[in-house]
Structure formats: C-alpha cells, structure tokens
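[09:14] KT: can someone run the structure on this one? pasting the chain below
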Amino acid sequence: MVGLSLVAQPSPPQRLSLRGGGRAAKSVIRIRCGIAEPSGEPAPLGQKTRYNDGIFEKAFMTLFARKMEKFAVPSENKASEKKGWWDLGYDYESFVDVSKRVMQRRTRIQQQQVVREVLLSMLPPGAPAQFRKLFPPTKWAAEFNAALTVPFFHWLVGPSEVVEVEVNGVKQKSGVHIKKCRYLENSGCVGMCVNMCKIPTQDFFTNEFGLPLTMTPNFEDMSCDMVYGQSPPAFEEDPVSKQPCYAQICSMSNPSSSLCPKLQA
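[09:31] RB: done, structure tokens below
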C-alpha cells in the first residue's frame, strides 16, 4: 500500500512446547506476537505473515466461506454477517472463523465430510469423472497438478514451490513444499489443519479424482509437503493422529491432553 506503514510491536516472548509429527521428543520454541512486512517469504515462526490480498484472492475466500457458512454454527458477531454475493467482504481471518464454526459440534469424520461436500459443490456435474479421464495417475499428471498448485493455491496456503520427490522408486517433480501454511498459521489449530485441510484434500484427490495425494504437515515450523502420486496412509498409521495441541496459541486447545481433542473419533 502507498503512503501507509504499519509496525507491530512484538509482545514478550512465550515458551511453547511443540511435538511435530507425533515424535516423542519435544522442541522448545519461543513465540513472539507480531506481523511481518510483506516480502514474498513467510514470516519466522511466532510472527504472522502479512499478505496483500487482491480481488482475485478475496473472491476465492468469499466463495469458499459462503459455501462453508451453510454448515457453520451461526456467528455471535452480527457485524460479520455478509449480504449479497457481490460483497467480497470476507478476508482470510473471517474465512478461518467460518472454518472454526464448522468444527463446532461435529466429530472429526463429520468435519471432513463437510469439506468434501463443499469441494464437490464448487465443481460442475461430472467433473471428477472428467478429471480422471484427463489426469490418470501418471507421472505427468502428478507433475502437472503440482505445478498448478503453486500459483492457484497461494491465497490459501501461502508461498510454495515445486520440489523433486521419489514416488515408488521414481524421481519426479510432483512434490510441493509449502514454506509456512497460511491456514495453520492463522488458525493455530492442529485439528483444523488435519480435519479441514489435510485429510479431506487427500481423500478428495485420491478417491474422487483418482490421483493419489499425500500431505505431511510439520507442526514445528508450520510447513507442509504435498506429494502427488503418493497414496496417503490410513489415519491410524499417520503420525498426525498422535499430534498434541498448540497449547499456547489455540483457543480450542486442551493443554492437559497428549492428543488434540479434535483428532479423536
């Protein structure tokens, strides 16, 4: 923005204990509250990355949020209610708020089913079948979808890049490294990451589109690795199923539990 400079003063650091990927070892990280200036790179852990969202990004936020509002617990904040479809008043924070309200009063499986219904509602009839014809589970299809992910989902997950991975012994550029997931950073919630993003996205590509996808979030630095062409593990065998809360930053956390309550059946 021209002629406007905002500087956020960080609050005193807090100590936060995180366990990434279900590992038993703990790493202690100092968390600072702050907003980083936009630079094209994610802010360090503990600072909130600043994004300059335009009309294109806000249109997608509004579309997703409105689809999800049908399943969300009504907001107590009347000022947050939107009017017509032409109103692109949803920003990323309000989009995340809708996600939190979708989680309320629903089990882990029910949350994932809502996301599946929302994704299907955004596609024309017969789209999954057409996708299967255009993109059979080949190396080319996996690499093509990885390349599309970087520009088209920047608004949702933040900066990312295509990386080379090995799938079934074959090296291919079908990996996407998300440097610091915007959704996880803004929600601060392990359950939202797993139930509202990772599992339903994996299932949607693998079961609806027929193109296997595995997503591996790193809860220590909030990065995430996506691998197109690689089948995801069963939930019970996935390290995320043993992930504890972000006890210091999640408003829905249960610090006394060794497992995020939103991951329980």
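[09:33] KT: thanks! The first helix runs from residue 55 to 69.
[09:34] RB: yep, looked fine to me
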